[in-house]
Amino acid sequence: MARVTRYSKFEGELDQLDSSELMQMIQEALLGQGMNDPYDPDPNARPSMDDLFDAILEALAERGMIPEEQLMEAMQSADVHDTALGQQIRGLMDKLQQDGFIRKEFDEQDGQGGAGPSGEATFQLTDKSIDFLGYKSLRDLMGGLGRSSAGAHDTREYASGVEMSGELKNYEFGDTLNLDTTATLGNVLSKGMDNMEESDLVIRQAEYNSSAATIVLLDCSHSMILYGEDRFTPAKQVALALAHLIRTQYPGDTVKFVLFHDSAEEVPVSKLAQAQIGPYHTNTAGGLRLAQQLLKRENKDMKQIVMITDGKPSALTLPDGRIYKNAYGLDPYVLGATLREVANCRRSGIQVNTFMLARDPELVGFVRRVSEMTKGKAYFTTPQNIGQYVLMDFVTNKTKLVN
């Protein structure tokens, strides 16, 4: 029986708050961009323990979970860390560490050797917390779709594989010998084992579940946090949800993540939640090129790229490694290089599904051209519903069959 994870509702005092409930309360802060200056983003920014303290304090206050006397003391204090409320919040932070949700880290150059004030330390989300955030995001997004679970990419085809759950058929040369003993003996007993022929063999077919390799291509250029709207946090949420969905429901599938900005790099799912907005421009060609390199290593029935972006291509990696940039309009040089990578995807049988968070006329034309070239899909969506669009597309998109 599969293990079911349940997260209980908090009804006690602060020091009795369950770590999983606390993680649920602060998940947006853990994934968000609150520490990053939208006008001068730092891709290497990492949250400190003080950032975690503030996130817990805000979450408790928003939910009215702080006793009135403690709240009054904190409001009148010069430093909330020194109050009874501050001590309880530090206790909750310690509990998150003890329960394996976060790992405190110190700068190796600070000479502290693991000691020092909490604010000088950063924290890293653990595999347990990544799994929790993926589960929670998936539950929220699938709930919005009216779904609670999803199965494998079922097809209407049958093959003689290892899962003997299909219909019976006479053996043919090349079939895997998943012998149905009862039916085979029924054919043989009447004439004797010495007279058994190949046509007497009966096998049980297996349902064929197709597999997919997916690269999630996430735009983390400057525009994803500008204009008073954080578009990157919802993109990360759906990426974590997709990773959890594939790990738990589609074990034969694979998913990897690529961030693209001035350049592009692969990021493991363990680092994805705390990834920050990067440099300013959008090197779509570089992201597509890296995604193709990663997909070449996969032996799957279908290979696809899920690209989440809000801007036009504005950067390009030159052969000598330099970055060519032009943020004004659709630069023909950048556009040409990007479409060449799209054409390479088409030749390699890679479908590109684009989820666009903006609707500029130039972008609409570019996205439609990408979709037409790779027989992919284009969705013009918003940060509020992008997760539902991505998951709905993945669940309903049946992978192509390999004969």
From TrEMBL:
Organism superkingdom: Bacteria
Domain VWFA intervals: 211-394
Gene3D superfamilies, alphabetized: von Willebrand factor, type A domain
InterPro entries assigned: VWF_A (IPR002035), vWFA_dom_sf (IPR036465)
Protein name, entry field: VWFA domain-containing protein
Species of origin: Deinococcus aerophilus
Lineage: Bacteria, Thermotogati, Deinococcota, Deinococci, Deinococcales
